[in-house]
Amino acid sequence: MYTSETTAEIISDLIQINNDRIDGYTRALENLKTDSDQDLRRLFEDYIQQTNQFNSELLPFAVIDGEGSGQRMHISGKLHRFWLELKASLSGHDRKSILEECERGEDASKKAYEKAIQESPDLPIHIVSIIRNHAQRQKAAHDHVRNLRDAAQ
Predict the structure, then answer these.
(1) β-strand partners of 15
(2) Cβ neighbours of 74 (radius 10 Å)
């Protein structure tokens, strides 16, 4: 049986990976060429907005007795940001390399949501429903980024 503290920890993990996703897409936006890749600019801005919405839906459940459960940094998120910065600096910021790194970040996010779903059987059904909804939308984003990467020259 899960306690409110365990629930808050699961939610905090998701919020942190979502924050990493926002940071990754923000950095990707910075690496896009200003005169091209407008489609990616709009897409990445949409994913940032989507992720902010995810966090706003999760945040009320990350509270224990009126206090936040604390933010723990995910190594996977740190590595994603590190690889995005490193590869972008080496690759000249081309479309394909940016999409490759965004997909790598989406992979980390997908794993975090899968883990949360595996740990969620005893969570309240409304929280599980939110997590599953986010996971489905995040997977769709992952698949879209992957398809764009595959189509990139």
Answers:
(1) none
(2) 19
